[in-house]
Prior knowledge:
Oligomer: single chain
Helix content: 10-25%
Amino acid sequence: MQTNKQSLFPAFQCLSIPITLQKEVTIDHDGQEVAKCGFKIGGGIDQDFTKSPQGYSDYGIYVTDVTPDSAADRAGLRMHDKILQCNGYDMTLCTHKKAVQIIKKTNVLNLLVTRKGVTHM
Length: 121
């Protein structure tokens, strides 16, 4: 049996971390409800990770910014976390646009993330 020495997605040792994030609901200047997460994402299977300013090494969905004292910050989400799942949706083979749609869909996000370098709790 021949083994493939190259991998499309390089493996790294990590721990899956569950995070529950309750979005902050506010009213905008037009009187509309706005639900804010407090984080930004980058990546996706439709993006060229070799051009990522953060230096990511695969097509995953990554947290690229966390607003201090936001819902994301208080929930424990950190910059560079890789989002594996969101509310049961597989985010590992997801386009950037689809990831944004999934995140915007509900006011509670049940996330499963990996954090490089964290191998035990």
